[in-house]
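User: Here's a chain of 267 residues. Predict its fold as tokens.
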Amino acid sequence: MGFHKTILVHEVLCDETFAVGRVNNDISIGSVSIPCGSTITEETCVNVLKCEPIIDIKADHILVQVALMVQEELTATTPGGETYPLEFAFRMQAVLHYTCCVPSSLGLTCLDSIDTVECRAKITSITNQITLHPSSPNEAANASFDQTLCIKINIKLLREIQLQMCIPAHPCKCRTQNCPLGVITLNDLTMGALIGILGSNAFAAILFLAYMVGKRRGGGVSAIKDEEEKTVPPTTRRIPTKGSSIPPGAVAQTQFVISGSKTASKK
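Assistant: Prediction complete.
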């Protein structure tokens, strides 16, 4: 017999990837001159500030309201090798509509958006194209750039559910081995030296594997020696009696009567 245990897991209700974009033109760089022939590089970071599901039972659709913080680090490099680091940050908001996820097919109610449904968002890719407009003339501080930003974000709607799991009272036992793992015997060292002489190649590996398999199944060389000792019959000593013959070169063991015992019997 076992016992039941209640576990809490998340059920994925909706899973979809959305694209959020923004186009900015003629963004002023600032009070620096960027002459013709300059280049600009970018590094963009996006963080999710808000992810809130909106379940409309009457309209039978699900919306998600997200808020993003975009941070850009730009570097403008002039033909002379001068670099100008630029930093920009702005906030983006969007309301996204699930296309293949509706409350009627999921059995959701108006209370699910408050109590049990959780919104989880993850940025999957960021594409930021920057087009530089250098200063005109070169000494003027009127450089600018255009930006086309595309952010792909994966949004999952999760709902907590409880499951009953049956755990057996007596878990299965693992089979024991002849030799504990991690113990190196003298035979293992001998095989290691033999493999070192043969070289670290496929043949040595196969030889060592065959040796270990044979050791696990039959107990190794020590088991063979034990079997040989069991098959040898034990030797017995024979004491010659009266009239027995002793072959040449043999050693005989005799029995002597202690004289003290005869004296005691006479008394």
